[in-house]
Amino acid sequence: MTDRVKIYCNTCQGETNHDVKSSHDQSFHEEFEDHGQTFVGYYEETQFRFLICRGCDTATMEEKWTCSGMYDQNGDEVFSYSYHPKRKNLGERQVKRFHHVDKKLNNSFKEIVTAFQQGLEIVTAMGVRALLEGICVIEGIDDKKAWGLAKKIEQLKELPNIPNTIIDGLNGLKFIGDDAAHRLNATDKHTLCLSIDLLESLLTHLYEARIDLEHKANMVKMTHNKKKQSDV
Q: Is residue 41 scored above 90 in pLDDT?
């Protein structure tokens, strides 16, 4: 009987049954000797499977990977899955194009969205924390003014254009980043998506919308002045 798995199909745009047509196992391990006995040190195991969708006959390559140390709290082995072509349901989102945001902040935001699209939850969370601290520094809140991200976030309250109600959300971003950076704990995709939304809104509020508003106000002012001069 043919092995069968259910995964997201890009063509059918939903989860469908796929037949496993073939598979190939690849392994690597390092050995070391101690008191005349041979032990296995670091190892990696990869399984490649060629899948065919039963709905549309489209092919997908599945890569299942694990290595030494990848265990959950119950001691069960944990696997990482990737698919070729990439699945279109894994956090795909458009990168907002900022025109008035600092270049470093802009590039950091793009990298965060790219990591999220690749399913790199820990990298995404660490990037969220780094970008938040970068915003604080751009606003003049560096280590000399406030040591530690928590104190930097508190200093943001003094800015006239950031409501106090937003600070609690920003503290949430700090904790997500701390879990990833210090404890290697991944946050679920929904929470990461909301975190990126908050950062996007913050960048828009602090820089994009304000500068665009100022630009449009100056255009209206210049047009009004020209009209007054022509009426004289």
A: no
